[in-house]
Amino acid sequence: MGFHHVAIATRDLDATHRFYTEAMGFELAKVVAGKSPEGGWAKHVFYRTPGGDMIAFWELHDAGLPDDWSPALSTGLGLPVWANHIAFRADDLTEIESRKRRWLERGHDVMEVDHGFCVSIYTTDPSGTLVEWCADTQPLGEADRAEAARLLADPNPPLESPKQSVFHKARPR
Questions:
Q1: Model pLDDT for residues 24-42, shown as the tens digit of each residue
Q2: What are the DSSP calls for 87-152, one per residue?
Q3: Does domain 5-61 have CATH number 3.20.20.300?
Q4: Is the pTM of this model over 0.85?
């Protein structure tokens, strides 16, 4: 079962729209504009992902919002950027390479990590939220589930060595 959509607020709908259509390759699917419960109004903008699920963004127009609110899922809460992030499924390493090129060509720096069971690439969207494409590179089986249950119950689990990250700098546009 997949998500129907995940919804996140944005302060800059134009930049968000460009990122998710141009850099991510998503398709604008629907926009709903209406009154908000607080007495203002909002746009709810939906994008269809290559897998058919959707991600949506809120453009909020409410006088009661604080001027300094941050839409960044992690840093807006005082957490490191990697804590809360959005990961999209890539079918294979060929798609990871294609997505990496697309980001770089559109001016977005990319971090690439081989996690052992999957390979991921990361960049940040215009709101400061970490976005990931992830491709599984090996199936997870019963031994993985048993180890996961053991580690979940362990109050002091052994720590893995940090994974090697490769940074790809986009050319200035």
A1: 999 999 999 999 888 899 9
A2: EEE-SSHHHHHHHHHHHHHTT--EEEEE-SSEEEEEEE-TTS-EEEEEEE-S---HHHHHHHHHHH
A3: no
A4: yes
